[in-house]
Structures are given as structure tokens and as C-alpha cells.
Amino acid sequence: MKTWLITGCSSGIGKGIAKAVLESGDQAIVTARNKDKVMDIVEAYPETALAVSLDVCSQDSIKNAVKEAYDKFGTIDVLVNNAGYGYRSAVEEGEIEAVQTLYQTNLFGPIELIKAVLPKMREQKSGYILNVTSIAAARSAVGSGYYASSKAALELLTTGLMKELAPLGIKAMVVQPGAFRTRFYDGESLQGTKAQIGDYEAVEAYVQKTDELIDNLNKTNKMLKDRLTTTEANLAVLEEKMKNISDNESVSMANLDLLKRISTLEQALFKAGINPSNIK
Question: I want to staple 193 with a disulfide (CB 3.0 to 4.6 A). Which of 93, 112, 120, 189 is the partner?
Fold first, then answer.
């Protein structure tokens, strides 16, 4: 049984990971800025789950979360740095305070968590660190420069970390999701600049058009999936009917063959002067 510390468990990927971990029989410290938002997970797994309030932008909050984890379970075998959010802005429009908070959440917070769990992992000569980034780290889009760069920085940091920790028996890796049906596009998970510049209206229009395209693609994919499911069900019914028809035809052919044999036998008996009806 392993013990996982997972950030950003109130929704989306973090919540999904937490549930999968607990369903498999492992233990999990499920975190959110407000632990009340993850109490439903703990209520389902009261013996193996611990809810902790964690703000990755606060050093004190990070230290407290790790301490609570050790007090409850004695160890942290797996750290999943999942908490984060998006920020839409042209580079020129970026607000320095907002960008700094973005980096604190998406990059420096995860770094501090890594530093907090590594002493114990080095002591036990084992452990796993999973840093959740984004496909944006490899392919930035219009208006995503700041978000993409924060995730790309975490990826490159993980590459160096992986090489540093390998001789110590600790593994580090990146999880780079693409599009998922999560709450990423709501007002909390995806924020944007307030300092809009008129010349970038075309950029905003492009982004909105892209969103509409993604939404339409998701709807189309769902529709095609539903149709495929219906078609497969119909094919299964059709195959069963064809099998029944085939079985019935096989019986009919067997009966016809038997009748032919009986008729041939009766003709032979009549020729021999024997009435078949007299045979018992």
C-alpha cells in the first residue's frame, strides 16, 4: 500500500486521480485550498483518505499539509503536483502581479512541495514525483504564452530532477494532458488579463473561435460515439437474428433430408411388395 499526496483534488484530473488511488486500496492525502471541497472523497474512504487544506502559494500551508500527512500515515510515497490554472493574455497585456501568482501556483508551489517531501523519500530511498503539466508546454497557442511557459518550465525542471534523483531510488516524471472534460474553462481554473489592448481584439476573436471549434468537435465526437454505440448494439441484435435464421434453416434442411430418406425407403418397400404402414 502506497501513500499519495495529491494537490488540486476538488475537481477534474486531481479528483479523478484521488478516486482511482483510493479505489485501488492505496492511501491518499486529498488537498484543495478549502478542504471542505474534498470531504465527499474522504467520506467515501474514511480509513484511507485525509482531507487537508493546501494553498500551494503559501510556504506555511505547504509545511502544514506535509506534516499532517506524516502525522496520519507516516510517509508520502507519491507526490502528484496537479494544482494549477490557466491565464489568457497577449504577452503585452500581461499583468505582472497576475503572472507572478500564475507562476507561483504552476511552478514555484510544486517546487516547494517537491523540496518538502524529498528528505523523507531520500531517507527511505524510494518515491515518485508526478508533475502534471499540459500539452501547452509543447505547443503554445495564441493568448497562452504565460500559461504555456509556466508549464514548460515545470517540464524542464522535472527533466533535471529526474536525473538527479535516479541514483537515489526516486523517480520523477511529467504527465502532459491534452483536452479533457474538466472545469478547466470555468472562471476559477482559467483566468485572463483585465488590461486589454484594442489591437489584440483579433486575438480574442481568434481564441473565442477556437473555443467554439473545440466545443463543436467535442459535441461531434460525442454524437459519433453515441451513434457508434447504437450501431454496434444494432449489429449485435442483427447477428443474433441471423444466427437464429441460420439455425432454423439448418433444422429445416435436416428435416427435408430426413423426409427424402423416408420417401426413398417407402418406395423401395412398395417395390418389394411390403406395405410400409404395416410395419411397426
Answer: 93
